[in-house]
Amino acid sequence: MISVRSFVIIGQPKIHRFQYLATAFISLLLMGLVYSWSLFADPIQQDFGWDSTQTSFIFTLSMIFMSIGMVVAGILEKHFSRRTLMVATGVLLGGGFIAAAFASNLLTMYVAYGAIASFGSGMGTDVVMATVLKWYPDKSSMASGGMLMGFGMGSFLLSPFVDMLLTTMGWRQTFILLGIAFIVIMVITAAIVHAPSSETERQLRQLVTAGSSKPVHNYRPAQMVGRPAFWYFFIWLILITSGGLALISQAVPAADAVLAVHPIGDAATMSLLATLAMGAVSLCNGFGRLLNGVVWERFGYRASVFGISIMFLASMLISGIAMQVNSYWLIVLGFVLLGLAYGGSMASMASMASEFFGPKHFAINYAISVLELIPSAFIGPMIISSVQQTTGSFITAFWIFLVFGVIGLGLAFIIREPRTPKEMRKAEYARERARKAQEIAVLTQQAALQFSSLHMADSGELYDPAQLRAYRELRKKLARAEYVAQTKPHSRKANVARYERQANQRFEEAAKKAQARAQRDQIRAMRADLQAQRAQLRFARANERAALTERTFRRYALKLARYDADAGTDSDVSAVDGVSTQA
């Protein structure tokens, strides 16, 4: 089927936008270190003598304040420039790490790392993503997945470097160095990344509107939270994210529990294998975000949601069986699937906020969606830690999360795009009709220009065949554009044959009518030319009569002057000439 984009050509300059995506990937890669609290927990616990129960709450606080930071960033973007917010993000994030380096008690660590640094990380993630996604309205899911891949893989890619710093410099100097790096990176990001101009954004939007017949509806936050589709997706995210956060917080102890029963190598080897299991979760967490963006972009939201639900269900089943039989490689497989599912769920939040509820209010809508991390950060780690303390094993926790997966798979069947409110449908319908009318007007104008090049042969009856064929092709495209404007999207594929017949009939009828109109126009033009020639002839004759009248008047005036001279009257012939000239 030929779409409007196939024959309405819009000239656009080449738009360079990859540098913004690459810069955002690097900045989010560094901000993803907030996820890596487990890297810093051991040396801090050894330094202060704290236990894991006290320090694990810092990770929960990080998830909470990261979500709050995103919401605040979405609100502040309406009042401050994005570059100002990026610099403020660097100050908060870097300042939080530097303040944590001078912490002397648990409360200071809660405030500095758990609140200030995480709040800055949430602000930076929201601002950077909202800015860069304005450059990718046609590939929003893939772009958001690529950026979030950096955020998810930060702990995996940077953990060797951070671990080296912790070993050589200590955790306090490492925090100071990382804080300075955060400030520098965010200042550089603010200098490079900016929103497109209004003209560039209009050209980018045409990539979406011209390439798809699906209308884009922009929901305000109040409208979004009032739609059932949002709450179905929100609950589904809580179920998947709870299991992901639970395993991220206890991946190394779970792997150690398996290796304790069936050891592989010496103690150093088992410690390395447990760390690799955690690395597999982090690596797949990042890769799953990009994979989900590609799947959502290519196959739609249903394939993405079902794929994540099935992987989460399979990961919990495999991990539970691995704990039963104490198989290290089987639990690594479960970790891999869970990392893909958890990373995909994180990326699906951005895709849902952009695709379901429109790009205009993406920053605040995405921030509201990320609030699901708050209950998830409590539910998941609380279940797995309490089960482990009560039973001494993680098996029951995996079965509980398996039930979460079954419920999530059931929700996947009822998650669908929101139905557009009535007033938005009316406004969108009016805009769509106006746009189609404008396109048809452009095509009609092109047809008129084609008519101007048609000419009749000497007999006055035949058109130039080449020009007539070009006109017929243009009329065929016009008929198809009219049909697309009047046909509902879901019925196009089922009516291709009927559409083709109607299109052929329309352009044949239009061609016949156009020929008749062209003949009438040519006849009118010939009549107009004839009338113009007659008017010119009448004007020439009027000028001749005027000249003759003037010569006659002068002749009689001269005779009158002679009579006056013979009679002795003092008459000035020149005066007579002046009167005649005025006459």
Automatic annotation (TrEMBL):
Name of the featured protein: Sugar phosphate permease
Keyword Cytoplasm included in the entry's annotation: no
GO molecular function, one term: transmembrane transporter activity
Compartments in which it is found: Cell membrane
Keyword Methyltransferase: no
Its membrane topology: Multi-pass membrane protein
Keywords (A to Z) from UniProt: Coiled coil, Membrane, Transmembrane, Transmembrane helix
Ranges annotated as spanning the membrane: 20-37, 57-76, 85-104, 110-133, 145-162, 174-195, 229-248, 268-287, 299-322, 328-350, 362-384, 396-415
GO cellular component: plasma membrane
Any coiled-coil regions, as ranges: 504-543
UniProt domain Major facilitator superfamily (MFS) profile: residue ranges: 16-420
